[in-house]
């Protein structure tokens, strides 16, 4: 796309009235574009409409009217969650109108160098951790996007003295053209969001757009333990700083001694940064990390590598690694009740995320799982269910699929909770069932392996209701 200032006097349609849509509409309107914002929600469900109309921005709610998209429209800015199969998007494609997401607009506005972080799992934790590391290093970070200030708003406020730290989804990246992060990190790839992308090829292509425009002076931070990430190396245009839990790297951030997959032990381990000259710097002891679970060790490695790539001193990361207590809904401690410990991991919206959560515990686990059916058979969970889970309480559209996998895994206690009067009532019933199955010393874990949209508006709502149900036991 052109710079936002170059849309002065031209028609722009913003699809979607979420936070990002509101901010991008304001940005383009301030720069003289003729902006129309469209949302399929009814007007009484769109409180943001009045704010935009007061500025002179046209807002159309309640559907996509005929004539909204026409040959005179210069640009479509699409809410990331709106699929490309949606009628107005398809019409724009047919007319050859450029379609982008807010990330692209924000990048064109931003004076600060950007750090882009994506992956199937661990994005929010890693992004938040990096922000704290750069803050401790005096590098003036702004954490924005999905987990903070809308990106367009932050981009306008940023200066060259800041670092913009941005969590990026495949939905956002798919709608980028020239976006170029100074540091880009791909954490991992797992099968997810296929209902949106249609296939893994499109999902992967969207993720790797993170690196498409990088220059020799930029850095790609890659998970060396993920086979797909390794395959990207020949296509990178900039530098590479990998991280690994299972290999001592020639250059990069790793754990020493390395972890042997599927083998539990109590060895003392250290996070090491080895620079381009081969010099080793001990960053922190693994045991000092403030979050439980091997996957959070991986997030710690990624965050350390990103911060170092941005210029942070590796000798000054230890305090942030030890003091960080995580993000809500990501393996979040809730309470101990009758000797059982309850954790909220509502953000686990795919099987890999749930597998990583389950492997964080050595205690028997009563698992609460289930949600939106995106077509997965959940067989990926079979090994971890048989090894770590004593009981399953399943709910949502996928409850029968998950119960079948649990039966195959040999679980003796499998409960399915049928849809009741409300989604909240179903989840509350699931918590009560799990509590009845838990003994002293057990873990009760909400880790759904599914998106929430069959029952809840978001994983955040699902997690909050779970926590309320636990506290009300």
From TrEMBL:
Keywords from the named record: ATP-binding, Cell cycle, Cell division, Cell shape, Cell wall biogenesis/degradation, Cytoplasm, Ligase, Nucleotide-binding, Peptidoglycan synthesis
Binding site for ATP: 119-125
Keyword Cytoplasm: yes
GO molecular function: ATP binding; UDP-N-acetylmuramoylalanine-D-glutamate ligase activity
Gene3D superfamilies: Mur ligase, C-terminal domain, Mur-like, catalytic domain, NAD(P)-binding Rossmann-like Domain
Sequence ranges assigned to domain Mur ligase central in this UniProt record: 117-307
The keyword Cell division belongs to this UniProt entry's keyword annotation: yes
Mur ligase C-terminal domain: residues covered: 329-450
A GO cellular component annotation in the UniProt record: cytoplasm
Enzyme Commission number, as recorded: 6.3.2.9
Signal peptide: none
Main location group: cytoplasm
GO biological process terms, semicolon-separated: cell division; cell wall organization; peptidoglycan biosynthetic process; regulation of cell shape
Catalytic activity line of the entry: UDP-N-acetyl-alpha-D-muramoyl-L-alanine + D-glutamate + ATP = UDP-N-acetyl-alpha-D-muramoyl-L-alanyl-D-glutamate + ADP + phosphate + H(+)
Pfam families xrefs: Mur_ligase_C (PF02875), Mur_ligase_M (PF08245), MurD-like_N (PF21799)
Enzyme class: ligase
Compartment list: Cytoplasm
Matches recorded under SUPFAM superfamilies: MurCD N-terminal domain, MurD-like peptide ligases, catalytic domain, MurD-like peptide ligases, peptide-binding domain
Pathway as given in its UniProt record: Cell wall biogenesis; peptidoglycan biosynthesis
NCBIfam families linked: murD
Role summary: Cell wall formation. Catalyzes the addition of glutamate to the nucleotide precursor UDP-N-acetylmuramoyl-L-alanine (UMA).
PANTHER family registered for this protein in UniProt: UDP-N-ACETYLMURAMOYLALANINE--D-GLUTAMATE LIGASE
Homology family: Belongs to the MurCDEF family.
Official protein name in the record: UDP-N-acetylmuramoylalanine--D-glutamate ligase
Organism name: Paenibacillus wynnii
Origin organism lineage: Bacteria, Bacillati, Bacillota, Bacilli, Bacillales
